[in-house]
Amino acid sequence: MRIAFYAPMKSPNHPVPSGDRLMARLLIKALEHAGHEVTVASELRSFASKPQAEHYAAVLEGADGEISRLSTLWASKGKPDLWFCYHPYYKAPDLIGPKLASAFEIPYVTAEASYSTRRNIGVWVETQASVEEAVKIAALNICFTHRDRDGLAEVVPDATFAMLPPFIDTSVFAASPHSGSTGLVAVAMMRPGDKLDSYRMLARALERIPEVPWTLAIVGDGPCRAEVEAAFAALPAGRIEWLGKKEPDEVPELLSKAGIYVWPGCGEAYGLAYLEAQAAGLPVVAQNTAGVPEVVQSGKTGILTPPGDVNAFAGAIAGLLSDAGKRRAMGQAARNFVMLERSLDAAAARLGTMLPAGAVVR
């Protein structure tokens, strides 16, 4: 099929890297691997960090312009076979696709849509209504986590759903064997909110195990660099290696030099970095919270500790560091899990059977 792809939160062509941009690019790759022709339909970004009526009005005007542009284009060049919207939610609704899909009678599909009734505040009441309507009219709603699926089903119980577990391109990890190191590593942007909370929790946990001979490599940078450094200030400087921002193609080698991936994952939707670490053969220590259990098999490929329990998180790190056999077994299980079940090829195979069944006009 010819697929019109749209990511209202952040285009796959956006210059700033993020997990959202990475997932959009991975979805396009998977769709292409499944034999589809994919075109990014629009670069319009509807994302707003705060419920501002002025911003929403401007986005609505931009959406009307894109609907007009694409209508003219499709009328002369031919319409696509399907509209595929990645990650519509209250801060970034799809204000283009549903109208075009209806006007041109093509199927509408969402991936990683989410809905939370507690977000019905100010102008977000309207954006939430847009998300609800999009899910309702969609021929198929592809969910990455059961939490998202349950949230959507609560609001639109008659919607059509299918599960697609989070995945990565494992080809870049094919030559990244685990080194057997005992070093810890974390890869994350330094920004306000959940990321900063996770950095702070990690620092507090490491403070509790000073007698354990750990070292930590931190890959990442961002506007909260000073706050992150302050969180780790009480720890011996020689134990922390600040590697800064790295390009995506540099990360596999950095991971392969470590022994355990440590990241609390506060509020994590699921975290592609967990899959990348496991592909490199690293066991994971994280919290059993949000979408983390969707990408880490607790007790098999890593250890998931109770949310907010710093002592348990510290204990899990110390326990893995002291047990080489367990580290090796979990690391191998982690690599097998991602390579066999969460690869681009596996995702393409699932999409290949999923979309034709969902691609019907409702």
Automatic annotation (TrEMBL):
The keyword Transferase is assigned to this record: yes
Any one GO molecular function term: glycosyltransferase activity
Keyword list, A-Z: Transferase
PANTHER family: SULFOQUINOVOSYL TRANSFERASE SQD2 (PTHR45947)
Protein name from the UniProt record: Glycosyltransferase involved in cell wall bisynthesis
Species, as recorded: Neomesorhizobium albiziae
Upper taxonomic lineage: Bacteria, Pseudomonadati, Pseudomonadota, Alphaproteobacteria, Hyphomicrobiales
